[in-house]
Amino acid sequence: MNDTRRTRSVLGVLIVAALVLITVDYRGGENSPLRGLRDVGAAVFGPVERASAAVVRPVGNTFDAITDAPDQRRRAEKLERENQRLREQIRAGAIDAGRARQLDRLLGTAGIGGYKIVAAQVISAGQGFEDTVTLDVGSSSGVRRDMTVMSADGLVGRVTRVGPATATVLLATDAASSVGARLEDTKEIGIVTGRGRRGLGDGGGTPMKFQLLNANATLKVGQRLVTLGSQGDSPYVPGVPIGVVERIDRPEGGLSRTAYVRPFARFTSLDVVAVVVAPPKSDPRDAVLPPRPAPPPSPSPSVSPSPHKKTVKAKRKREG
């Protein structure tokens, strides 16, 4: 179509007419004089509009899905990171609560024994031939060589190397470890030595052994041991619980007996421990040992009726 003045005039008239019709229809509302014309238009062009929408809508939805995919992926990744952060917070909260309980028990144990301690955390375990662990405290915290290390349950070992911020502890289970010990009830003394890792793998969980200095002294399963203490309280302070006698070997023809000891401290799961930086003013003896568990109640014996009661019961039965 040529762009002539006449064409432009006709187009202008049509636009003005359309605007007039729209204005009249809008102002008329439901009573519009053009309502019939509007219904005819809807009947004619409605099916065409629905068919066009049916074709165009899936294409539009697909286009929207493609354009929104990166945003959806970013939102999913953000939610996953948030969930991971929340899981880590929950896990850290549980760990912190567990360590707080350990520290509370540790302070209670140290208070009973009269030990001045520096709390520490095990940060690594030795990978060599020695049974050692590394603590997160050192000389800057007042830790020195040959200091006793304990947990809330009992003896852990002694400090062998010290740095400004860390310390190495030789565990009491190491084969080179030797600790003076005293039996709880008889007060007999002897030496507790470590058996190394083989003591944890023998099925009995007894990584220590104990020999009395007096070969004729009483030695029984179930007796408990505490540290005897060293001269000058170094490397071991007195009264720290060591463990309980689990079994006793009596070699044929030999006078000495060897007792195998289950330690109170859990060496395979050490976490919060304490370095004793000052000994007690007096030997606590057995005060730090936990109370002995109550023995299980014995079954009450059945009481049989006496012969006299049996005779009376039989006589009444005959008279009846």
How are the elements arranged and paired?
Elements: H1 5-28, H2 35-113, E1 116-125, E2 132-135, E3 148-150, E4 155-162, E5 167-171, E6 178-183, E7 189-194, E8 208-212, E9 224-227, E10 241-249, E11 258-263, E12 272-278, H3 307-319
Antiparallel strand pairs: 1-2, 1-12, 2-5, 3-4, 3-12, 4-5, 6-7, 6-9, 7-8, 8-11, 9-10, 10-11
Describe the overall structure.
The structure is a single chain. The chain is of the alpha+beta class. It folds into 2 domains: 13-90, no CATH class; 114-278, Beta Barrel (Thrombin, subunit H). It has helices at residues 5-28, 35-113, 307-319; strands at 116-125, 132-135, 148-150, 155-162, 167-171, 178-183, 189-194, 208-212, 224-227, 241-249, 258-263, 272-278. A 6-stranded antiparallel β-barrel has the order 1-2-5-4-3-12. The longest helix has 79 residues, at 35-113. The chain starts with a helix and ends with a helix. The model has no long low-confidence stretch (mean pLDDT 79). Involved in formation and maintenance of cell shape. Belongs to the MreC family. Residues 69-96 form a coiled coil.
